[in-house]
């Protein structure tokens, strides 16, 4: 479902005479349906860079990044937007808050975008917010003023609302209390059970051991290691 083959990435430093810094070469990995694969490696090894390449935020210099039949390394922007709408989800560490949109709408929005009937979308959103222990009095408010942990839970509810076949998770349990961490790990297990292919960064070792089937060390894709 996610197939990375020979992916490479250079960063061009426009403010330093256009110098090209190679950060990744020959990355390869596969994530099948129902699998969760963890990206590991030292700080700066390129975990976030690889996730952003899969999501299409960073363009690969070479290689193939197949996600649900689309080669993200070559796809047109409109194909990537369509992929993100219905097949590829991304739970980043921080919620991008849209001012004045109530929490319930923020969470239901990915479902509405794929054509889910409004009542069903709101019902699913309520269910997720309740499971993540977000007090009901907050559901009608914009998350703009919420605490970091509250915003993170809104972000997770939004990310898990639609049953994406492929899902990217960036530290989904960071800064959550034990109870909410447990809920998130159960959501990951449920997504795997319905056949989602999940690629994630988990600094929480116990979480990784519990939900991940395999680990891929991004350090093996540094240009020096590949040379
Ligand atoms: N937009 C950018 N421009 C230039 N260099 C970048 C950019 N993004 C990342 N890098 C560089 O690429 C390398 C990999 O960074 P990345 O954030 O992917 O590492 P990471 O493994 O996710 O690290 P951490 O565990 O600390 O979050 C680093 O050397 C970083 O400085």
Automatic annotation (TrEMBL):
<dbReference type="InterPro" id="IPR012701">
    <property type="entry name" value="CP_lyase_PhnL"/>
</dbReference>
<dbReference type="InterPro" id="IPR015854">
    <property type="entry name" value="ABC_transpr_LolD-like"/>
</dbReference>
<dbReference type="InterPro" id="IPR003439">
    <property type="entry name" value="ABC_transporter-like_ATP-bd"/>
</dbReference>
<protein>
    <submittedName>
        <fullName>Phosphonate C-P lyase system protein PhnL</fullName>
    </submittedName>
</protein>
<dbReference type="GO" id="GO:0016887">
    <property type="term" value="F:ATP hydrolysis activity"/>
</dbReference>
<dbReference type="InterPro" id="IPR017871">
    <property type="entry name" value="ABC_transporter-like_CS"/>
</dbReference>
<keyword id="KW-0456">Lyase</keyword>
<dbReference type="GO" id="GO:0016829">
    <property type="term" value="F:lyase activity"/>
</dbReference>
<dbReference type="InterPro" id="IPR003593">
    <property type="entry name" value="AAA+_ATPase"/>
</dbReference>
<dbReference type="InterPro" id="IPR027417">
    <property type="entry name" value="P-loop_NTPase"/>
</dbReference>
<keyword id="KW-0547">Nucleotide-binding</keyword>
<keyword id="KW-0067">ATP-binding</keyword>
<dbReference type="Pfam" id="PF00005">
    <property type="entry name" value="ABC_tran"/>
</dbReference>
<dbReference type="GO" id="GO:0005524">
    <property type="term" value="F:ATP binding"/>
</dbReference>
<dbReference type="GO" id="GO:0022857">
    <property type="term" value="F:transmembrane transporter activity"/>
</dbReference>
<feature type="domain" description="ABC transporter">
    <location>
        <begin position="2"/>
        <end position="227"/>
    </location>
</feature>
<dbReference type="GO" id="GO:0005886">
    <property type="term" value="C:plasma membrane"/>
</dbReference>
């Amino acid at each position: 479902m996610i197939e990375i083959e020979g992916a490479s990435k250079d960063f061009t430093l426009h403010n330093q005479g256009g110098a090209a810094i190679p950060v990744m070469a020959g990355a390869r990995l596969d994530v099948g349906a129902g699998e969760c694969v963890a990206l590991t490696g030292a700080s700066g090894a390129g975990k976030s860079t690889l996730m952003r390449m899969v999501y299409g935020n960073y363009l690969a210099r070479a290689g193939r990044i197949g996600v649900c039949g689309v080669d993200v390394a070559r796809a047109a922007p409109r194909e990537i937007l369509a992929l993100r709408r219905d097949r590829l989800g991304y739970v980043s560490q921080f919620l991008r808050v849209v001012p004045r949109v109530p929490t319930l709408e923020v969470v239901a929005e990915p479902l509405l975008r794929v054509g889910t009937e409004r009542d069903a979308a709101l019902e699913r959103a309520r269910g997720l917010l309740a499971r993540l222990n977000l007090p009901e009095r907050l559901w009608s408010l914009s998350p703009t003023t919420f605490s970091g942990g509250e915003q993170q839970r809104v972000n997770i509810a939004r990310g898990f609302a639609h049953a994406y076949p492929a899902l990217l998770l960036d530290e989904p349990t960071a800064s959550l209390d034990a109870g909410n961490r447990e809920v998130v790990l159960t959501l990951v297990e449920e997504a795997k059970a319905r056949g989602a292919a999940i690629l994630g960064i988990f600094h929480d070792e116990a979480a990784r051991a519990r939900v991940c089937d395999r680990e891929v060390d991004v350090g093996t894709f540094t240009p020096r290691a590949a040379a």
